[in-house]
């Protein structure tokens, strides 16, 4: 089974261990103590389980929204008041968020929880686990997860506190982003000698040595943004470590879309590190810990088409500016989109029985109650027809079917709830190749006999039947990344690096550069008076 490892650790762990974790400077309490647990080999392995449970937390929903709704990749307007959610989706789109935005608060809390649980688990295992290779590997894996959590905090919030000592609950001040970068880099490099070199079902969902190098590559590619210093040769060196391992390959064109299906897992040759999701998984933290992409991306009229046991909301869609990257008719990646007139799986039209007024709430005729059969048609533009100030497109069929929909994480008809079985990849081999190509174009030295265009063509050869590229530039790399990693949580990171985050799309015109990092939430200040707000925010 694709999740055999996590089933093992969670079945042992979640039967009796409950965590209560808050901000970085608030104590983490648990029934797991050196006096009662662990005491044997299986329990030592299981003791790392809470770290992975915490990591699963917001990654599939709230964290994705923060990365995506703040870009041209996706938008979630209100429809007749539905999904306004206190304006958090609106301010994400307009780049007018404040420190009270729900996503910013929730994700700070989530990332702080991962760090707090990792600190506690490292403390317990360091004290109770017998010395040896197993201990070194287990601790290195936990510290790598913690480093990844710190990376997400640094990438999103910039200047954050650093705390690695469980039991020291004195308030910490936040440190400069460049210092956080150095801390993460040091932590990863210290873990690498002890991380496993194996990539298999047995290690799936846990970071191995190649996960650590992939994370370093991502950091070095963005190092100029984080620290002011270019690190492109270091990015290339980290990518080469993964390439030279020989463990990963580009998923063939015929199975690209299947990488994101409910049956995905360790058999996917591109997956360097993925977060497993399964409706049967338990959760002991105050996070949803689910993958519910179908709930938000599938049109509500398409329940029968995908044989879903629930009615999807279909509330999130892409923007024309982002979809414009999908301009190659021979590209298999076009298959992740629902566009235009929709049809059932048997080829018959997907229709909705409504009225003239139900189809168009602004219909002015006297026969608004006349029944009509509407052939569902997903249109590219999202128009705030009902109320621009309330970010509202309206509450009729025309409004509900505005915007093309992404179904990369293909709807899971086997789940009895909105939660899907689709695992979410964090690092893929195609990202390694495209990061290396970009680093070369930005001034790094080519290695292993591969030019930037050759690296990009390695990916494209398994994505499109169109001719290979004879040349490549940064704009081409950006477009390729947009096609390859759509809805995987990396687009904000890419837009910032390519200088596009201050651009105009949809209804957004704000070009404030300080918004490349988010404000530290108000709740963090309430718990830790030593924190200082990021520049530009009150």
What's a quick, concise take on this entry?
The chain is mostly helical. Helices cover about 40% and strands about 5% of the residues. The protein has helices spanning about 5-15, 40-45, 50-60, 60-70, 90-95, 100-130, 135-155, 175-190, 210-220, 225, 230-245, 295, 320-325, 355-360, 395-400, 430-440, 450-460, 475-485, 490-495, 520-525, and strands at about 20, 30, 270-275, 335-340, 340, 350-355, 370-375, 375-380, 405, 425-430.
Explain how this protein is built.
The chain has 538 residues and is mainly alpha-helical. It has 2 domains: 4-292 and 421-527, Serine Threonine Protein Phosphatase 5, Tetratricopeptide repeat, CATH 1.25.40; 293-406, no CATH class. The protein has helices spanning 4-13, 41-46, 49-59, 62-68, 88-94, 102-128, 133-157, 177-191, 209-221, 223-227, 232-245, 293-297, 320-323, 356-359, 397-400, 429-441, 452-460, 474-484, 491-497, 522-527; strands spanning 19-20, 29-30, 271-275, 337-338, 340-341, 351-355, 371-375, 377-378, 405-406, 424-428. β1 (19-20) and β2 (29-30) form a beta hairpin. α7 (133-157) runs antiparallel to α8 (177-191), α8 (177-191) runs antiparallel to α9 and α11 (232-245) packs antiparallel against α16 (429-441). It is globular. Residues 3-23 and 25-30 have low confidence and may be disordered.
């Amino acid at each position: 089974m694709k999740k055999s490892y996590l089933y093992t650790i969670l079945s042992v762990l979640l039967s009796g261990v409950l965590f209560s974790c808050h901000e970085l400077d608030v104590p983490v309490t648990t029934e797991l103590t050196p006096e009662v647990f662990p005491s044997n080999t299986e329990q030592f392995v299981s003791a790392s389980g809470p770290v992975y449970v915490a990591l699963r937390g917001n990654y599939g929903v709230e964290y994705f929204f923060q990365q995506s709704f703040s870009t041209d990749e996706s938008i979630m307007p209100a429809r007749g008041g539905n999904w306004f959610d206190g304006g958090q989706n609106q301010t994400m789109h307009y780049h007018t968020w404040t420190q009270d935005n729900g996503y910013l608060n929730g994700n700070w809390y989530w990332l702080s929880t991962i760090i707090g649980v990792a600190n506690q688990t490292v403390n317990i295992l360091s004290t109770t686990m017998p010395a040896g290779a197993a201990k070194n590997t287990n601790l290195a894996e936990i510290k790598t997860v913690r480093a990844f959590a710190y990376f997400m905090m640094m990438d999103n919030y910039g200047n954050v506190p650093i705390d690695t000592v469980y039991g020291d609950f004195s308030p910490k001040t936040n440190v400069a982003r460049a210092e956080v970068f150095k801390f993460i880099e040091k932590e990863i490099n210290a873990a690498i000698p002890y991380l496993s070199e194996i990539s298999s079902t047995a290690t799936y969902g846990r970071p191995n040595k190649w996960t650590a190098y992939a994370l370093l590559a991502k950091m070095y590619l963005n190092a100029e943004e984080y620290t002011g210093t270019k690190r492109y040769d270091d990015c290339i060196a980290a990518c080469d470590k993964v390439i030279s391992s020989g463990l990963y390959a580009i998923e063939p064109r015929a199975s690209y879309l299947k990488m994101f299906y409910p049956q995905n897992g360790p058999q996917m040759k591109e997956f360097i590190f993925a977060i497993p999701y399964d409706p049967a998984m338990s959760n002991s933290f105050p996070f949803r810990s689910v993958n519910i992409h179908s709930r938000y991306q599938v049109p509500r009229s398409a329940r029968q088409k995908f044989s879903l046991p629930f009615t999807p909301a279909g509330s999130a869609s892409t923007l024309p500016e982002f979809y414009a990257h999908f301009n190659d008719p021979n590209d298999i990646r076009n298959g992740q989109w629902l566009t235009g007139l929709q049809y059932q799986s048997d080829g018959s039209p997907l229709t909705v029985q409504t009225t003239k007024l139900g189809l168009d709430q602004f219909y002015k005729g006297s026969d608004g109650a006349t029944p009509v059969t509407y052939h569902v048609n997903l249109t590219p533009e999202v128009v705030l027809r009902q109320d621009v100030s309330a970010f509202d497109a309206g509450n009729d069929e025309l409004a509900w079917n505005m915007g093309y929909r992404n179904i990369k994480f293909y709807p899971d008809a086997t789940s009895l709830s909105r939660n899907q079985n689709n695992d979410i990849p964090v690092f893929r081999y195609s990202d390694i190749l495209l990061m290396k190509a970009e680093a070369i174009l930005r001034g790094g030295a080519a290695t292993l006999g591969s030019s930037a265009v050759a690296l990009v063509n390695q990916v494209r050869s398994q994505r499109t039947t169109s001719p290979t590229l004879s040349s490549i530039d940064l704009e081409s790399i950006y477009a390729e990344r947009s096609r390859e990693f759509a809805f995987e949580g990396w687009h904000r990171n890419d837009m910032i690096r390519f200088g596009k985050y201050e651009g105009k799309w949809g209804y957004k015109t704000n070009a404030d550069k300080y918004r490349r990092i988010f404000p530290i939430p108000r709740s963090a200040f309430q718990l830790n008076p030593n924190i200082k707000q990021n520049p530009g925010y009150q």
